Amino acid sequence: MNLSDVAAVGEVKRGEGQSDRRDNELKICGGATELLYNDPCRRFVNGLTIERRRMRLWRFERTHVCVSKEFSFHRTPRSFLRFLLYLLFSSPRDLGFDPNVRRYFERVPEETDPSSGASSDRYQIAYRYQVGNRYFLTQGPPISDQAAYWVVSQATRVWRVREMHFPDPSNEHEYTLGEPMALKDAYLLEDAVLDSGIKEQIMASLRDAGADDKDAARYFMEYEIDEVALLPNEKETGLEDDLTSDMETNRPASYTPKVETPDIEAWIICVEQGGYIVTLAAGTVSGILQVGKANLRT
């Protein structure tokens, strides 16, 4: 089975002892971690654990992990059935897949066999990031993805990418690739300062100190795109609706009111020059969506 097609994770035990419960918890957390780490297309992962007749529902997101109170799915099967219907009939987006990131099969041309004339082209897995009306295709493995291993994190990934250009917009398999760039995929808080804003603050401080900000600008990126990446047709609140949100089993056992800080997904992109990826930043970077070029001193 291809893990990219897995809709949810689960663990089942015939016993209901503390050791069974603990083993289920460790395994479902490990399974969700593997899915979120290995698949950039996922925003969250749903799951379930069963110890004999006792069941709990899980949700793993980049901001938190939540679990329902346990219930008997023999005595109260309605919640279990609603969860199964949610998995069976929900859209990929409602199951946690990011519509802005697609798993792509990139064709890698190989030499043609001169005797038979047959082509030996091969295909490798890549990821296509959509930024507004622009598309970027990853090239090879990520430059850095250690932070994405932790479930509750900014899940930062940095890729080598090229922009995709489609001669025929209706045919997504025929395209040309632009210049090499670097793309940073990360999650951030709603009030995070974008990198271009941090750069402007640094330049303003240099001007106030009487320094030459134009000379210093060569060490920073020139941003073409600098914005947060929202889901298509997302509500103004940024909250997601799904069939589990109003379930009795999904309500927390206790709740401490606090200021809500919903997470937003974003990316950063810079240009590769001379075989090197140039990413220069200063200050507190919380995650952004940016495309830019860097000037290097030779």
TrEMBL record:
Residues 1-23 are annotated as: Disordered. Residues 2-163 form the Fungal-type protein kinase domain. Transmembrane segments: none annotated. InterPro entries: Pkinase_fungal. It comes from the Eukaryota. Residues 11-23 have a biased composition (Basic and acidic residues). This is Fungal-type protein kinase domain-containing protein. It comes from Hermanssonia centrifuga.
